[in-house]
Amino acid sequence: PVLQTRSLQKRFGGIAATQDVSIALERGARQALIGPNGAGKTTLFNCLSRLYIPSDGDILFEGKSILKARRHEIATIGMGRTFQNVALFDNMSVLDNVALGAYLRGKAGVLRSAMRLDRVEEKRTHAEAARAITRVGLAAHVHDAAGSLPLGRQRVVEIARALAADPALLLLDEPAAGLNSQEADKLTEQIRWLRDQFSLAVVLVEHNMRVVMGACE
Fold first, then answer.
1. b/e per residue, 31-69, with b = 16+ CB within 10 A?
2. 110 three-class SS
3. Quick check: 94 and 138 in contact, CB under 8 A?
């Protein structure tokens, strides 16, 4: 499995937000984590991406425990993620937003690359970012300010940024939140296409059951 958890738990004081979570996710799978608000879905995502330190249990990514991995290492080992609230730099172009994901694959580092101290690296990362943008169907908006796009397309920009880091696993946290039915249907198609195109494992937390049933196995 690309991802395994073993009896994973996260407690906040006396409250168990997640308890005894054991899953195994194969490469190329499309699966959803569903449940009411407060069930612990995002808490589990936060544990997987190391935003939270689990209280007990283990997380294995491609067979290796990542419990001691640092937060900034998670994307570099092959795990991409989006969040409930869109987290883009509104005044930066779509290209520059997505390039932040591509920088993670480089040798110069995010800070050095972002400050344009390595021109060769900058050129390469922008080329990779442009490819990711084209793959998700936003080539026409590559130079637009990210904040000028509708919410549905901003969420797709976030997916492109995650893809630019070349992940083996993509965690999508309520990607259809705030989308109209047409945008949600388009998102469903893109999730299916991502798996088929890149053999990614995709896990989404989602309340829109039409998206869940259309996108997942």
1. bbbeeeeeebbbbbbbbbbbebebeebebbbeeeebeeb
2. helix
3. yes
Distance from C-alpha of 212 to C-alpha of 206, rounded to nearest angstrom: 7
pLDDT in tens, 28-85: 899 999 999 989 999 999 999 999 999 999 999 999 999 988 887 888 888 988 888 8
What crossing angle do the helices spanning 151-164 and 94-103 adopt, rounded to 10°?
Answer: 30
End-to-end CA distance of the chain: 16
153-211 confidence digits (pLDDT tens):
898 899 899 888 888 999 999 999 888 898 899 889 988 888 788 788 999 999 999 99
Q: With contact defined as beta carbons under 8 Å apart, do 194 and 132 qualify?
A: no
**Are 162 and 82 in contact, with CB atoms under 8 Å apart?**
yes
| Token pair for 115 | 């400050």
Geometric angle at alpha carbon 91, from 206 and 144, rounded to 5°: 80
Partner residues linked to 59 by β-bridges: 5
From 41, 80, 79, 81, select the one nearest 61 (Cα to Cα).
79
Measured from the Cβ of residue 201, the count of other Cβ atoms closer than 10 Å reads 23
207, amino acid identity: H
